[in-house]
Amino acid sequence: MKTMKIVLLIAVVTFSAVSFTLKTEKGYRIGDIIEDFTLKNIDDTMVSLSDYKEAKGFIIIFTCNMCPYSVANEDRILALDAKYKSKGYPIIAINPNDPKASKGDSFDDMKVRAAEKGFTFPYLFDAGQKVYPKFGASKTPHVYIVNKKNMKVEYIGAIDNSSRNPDAVTEKYVENAVDSLLTGDKVEKTETRAIGCSIKVDRN
User: Fold this and answer.
1) Residue 185 zone, left/alpha/beta (φ > 0; ψ -120 to 50; rest)
2) Domain of 101: which CATH number?
3) pLDDT tens-digit readout, 65-91
């Protein structure tokens, strides 16, 4: 009887561990092929990745208006767009938050913030929160670099190794990854931990 209880306990623990693993592995992983999407931009046009005929890839960043981590990275996102858009890797920013759960993240608020900061990239609204779960994004900001040649995910994680203070950056994850892709080299660091605010979902 004692042996049976031990066996059952091990089985339960194993099942729980597997269930937890499966639960946390939703969304795209390195090497996965992503689906295109169509979302509304702050200029009221609908934007898809397929619209970018000359692009070599995309720096897709889930970000928002209200998260202090996102705000702290806005200038860095602008700098990335300035550096890489002309080289074929434009920024595609997506706000995944439900505005009912995050006051200040409505579509109209996005327009205001983009104008204030002079965004040079599309700032898309994930209406109905249908896109971010496919990626598996959990934070703002959360970065996915995609190679357009095969639409495969090449990098997932943070912009760099300083979530709030740009002066403390010593390793530029996104720049290193895109530079490698542009030269045809292997991306050395394909995943890092995204640090930021949790994506807001209306539970009512």
Assistant:
1) beta
2) 3.40.30.10
3) 999 999 999 999 999 999 999 999 999
